[in-house]
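Table S2 (text version). Query chain:
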Amino acid sequence: MAGGPGVGDVAPDFTLAGTPNGRRYSLAEFRERPVVLVFYPADNTPVCTTQLSRYSADLDQFDDLGAQVLGISPQGVASHESFSAELDLGFPLLADEGKAVGKQYRVVGPLGFYKRSVFVVDAKGVIRYAHRSSQGLTYRKTDELVEAVQAAM
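Corresponding structure-token output:
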């Protein structure tokens, strides 16, 4: 795992506070169902806003497969609460303020910013899809992620 966890590796567990109201989430609590981990650089930025809005609008496609979507970035819960409310997001945003989880998943770039990255974790906690963006100017489309979730089932 020198380059970070990848397809076939057990997904590193974590516990982070998130929306709503600082609720604490752990990856382990979602065992028995697929999880889509969406690492994004920052709240209230153009590409992140478009990406998370799109995933929220398409949430029924993930729900139909029993998949849980979790957004993760380094901003705090207060920032996430505001951002989530403004966009009316249908999934939690988790606060990785110390970037410990980002470092575990090797999504923190050389300048300390998150690389836009997505992982699909199966019901047993194994990574079945991993994409780490080098540029971060685009994001993985819903159809690609839904196919990854289907393949992980």
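Notes on Table S2: The mean pLDDT is 95. The radius of gyration is 14 Å.
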